[in-house]
Amino acid sequence: MRQKARKRRNKKEFFYDYTLLLIVLLLVCFGLIMLYSVSSYEANLDFGDPAYYLKKQIFATVIGFGVMIAANVIDYHIWEKFATLGYVVSIVAILLVLSPLGKTLNGARRWIFIGGISLQPAEIAKIAVVLLVAVLICKMGRGISQWKGLGVIIVVAAIPTLLILLVTSNLSSAIIVMGIAVLMGFVADPKYKKYFLLALAVVVIGVLWILKVYMESEGVSGTGNYRDARVLAWLNPEAFADDDGFQTLQALYAIGSGGIWGKGLGQSMQKLGFLPEAQNDMVFSIICEELGLFGAFCVLLLFLMLIWRFMFIANNAPDLFGAMLVVGVMAHFAIQVILNIAVVTNTIPNTGITLPFISYGGTSVVFLLAEIGLVLNVASQIQIQD
Known about the structure:
This protein has helices at about 1-10, 20-45, 50-75, 85-95, 120-140, 145-170, 170-190, 195-215, 225-235, 245-260, 285-315, 320-345, 360-380, and strands at about 15, 100-105, 110-115, 115-120, 385. A 3-stranded antiparallel sheet has the order 2-3-4. A two-stranded antiparallel sheet has the order 1-5. Residues about 5-10 have low confidence and may be disordered. It has 3 domains: about 25-75 and about 225-385, no CATH class; about 80-190, no CATH class; about 190-220. It is globular and about 55 Å long. The two termini are about 20 Å apart. It contains 13 helices and 5 strands. The chain is mostly helical.
């Protein structure tokens, strides 16, 4: 009897985060419903099939769940050995955009086509940076608290960031990649002063750039640089209602017309050809129009719960590498959600960024689910203490 009792005491029990899995399933299912609601009109006009975008997203989601299950089953420590290789592969993938494999869609050359399947290299770079920075933080140890440690992280993130910016002109993804690395360093470093100084420098540069654009454009209806034009449209969207401010104004009309409870699922007017790329960057505005502020609040609540689960898992991870992996994924989701909503509400200039699990995008949903699989694997190795 004593031996059986001792065996029960020595038996290890491990945790599995079913709450995180449920939140992800809710976001994915809601995203598919909203995608069909938002895209059916345009899909029917362009392709003669109201479910065109939905079918493609379901296909990508099925692949994504397969990848998530694999990442959930495979011990996350294995990826530590392949972090450098993944980083190099992500850089090569970005450069392939310049090759014949690179394709232009909607006026932007950001994809590569392999075997009839489109792939956005920027999504590979995000998860690659999470893995490599996690490895570097573990190797540096206390060295992360020095300026040199922050410098190493910034340099590692700067290479794919600059390539994304120069090769694909994708400012939003470039910001996310650098933001992921800096936030991972911030969480790992007990000394925060240098990060506040870095943030202050970024804010000052941003303000000076906005002032420069405004002063140069005073009395001028447009500008030659499309990023400068977006800043001007952000400052005064009504003045650019026929050009760079058009999408922003239509999104604001959608948000304003939804009221508290919305017009009802499928009842949006702005998606009927008025709001460009409604199924991509601006899907949150249609959520506000059809489901109102209540629906928007529910979506934000789901994302807040997702971040909460990430924080819980990171705090209880069995080792530093696992904790940093989860922090990197948390940074990715948090930055992307905040930027998307900020763009839709015209809080920041339009950068063209999608809302995780809800906006249309096959590559995005596959890699987001892969990251969820990594987090679930870390969570599954948390030991429950009696």
